[in-house]
Specification:
275 residues, alpha/beta, Rossmann fold, eight-stranded mixed β-sheet
Length: 275
Amino acid sequence: MPKKGDSINLWPGAMPGTVAAGEEQHARALETPVAKLFLLDDGLVHPLMVVLPGGGYCCRAPHEADPVAEWFNGLGMHALVCHYRVFPWRHPAPLADAQRAVRLAREHAAAWRVDAARIGVLGFSAGGHLACSVANFGDDGDAAAADAVARQSSRVQALVSCYAVVSAVKQPHRGSFENLLGKSPDPEVLQRLSLESSVTPRNPPAFIWHTADDGSVPVANCLVYAQALSDAKVPFALHVYPHAHHGIGLGRDFPGTAREWTGACETWFHELKWV
C-alpha cells in the first residue's frame, strides 16, 4: 500500500503526445506527469476521486491540488492529484494523462482498496475542461494492450466541475484553448473539445458550480454544459453563486455564498451514496 503523498510516474515507458513547434527542449525539461496519492489507511474500500487543478493549460494551481485531495479524504474518499502535462504539450497529452490516472487507479483497485465502480474526477477552470473531457470521452480500455494499465477503462462514475472552461464557441476562454491547441487549431478538433457538443447519455452524474460574475471564465460555460447534460438525460446538480473571483478553490477564506459549494457537493455525494 503506497504511503500518503507518494507519487507514481504515469508513463514509466514511452510517453505519448505532441509538443508545440520549437518547444521540444522546453518540454523535455519539464517534470514527468505523475499521480500523487492520497489514500486512506483504514483497511476499508472507498471511492476515489482524481483531482485536476486549473491553470489555463499553462500551469497547475497548488491551492486546487493537495488541499482538495485532503478534503476528499475528510469525506471518506481516496484521492489522487494528477499532475498532467501543460503547454508546450498539446492535446491530447493532458487528456491522455488524466485518463491514465483513472486507469491507474482501476488497475491498482485491489491493492489500494479502491471501489473500481466508484471512481470520479474533479477539475477547476482549465482542469475542469480536462475533467469534463474525461467524463465525455471515457473508453473501455484496449483489451489487446501489453500494458495492464492501458487495458483498464477510463470511464468515471462522477464528475465535479468547478468554474470550468467548457465551450470553444460560447464565450470561450481563449488562452486555455490556445495553450491546448495552438493559435490555428483544426476546426473539427476545436468543435469536439467544445464540450457541450460531445456529451452523450453515457456521461456520469455531474455536480457543476460557477459564479455569475466570474471575470475570467464566463458563467455561460457551465450553463451550456448543464443544458447538454439535460438534453442527454444525464443527472446533474447546478449551482451558480452570485459573486466570487475566479479561482477561489475550496473557498474557505471567501466571505460570500460561493464558499458553500463544498457543503453542497458533500450532500450530492451522500445522494450518490459515495459517502
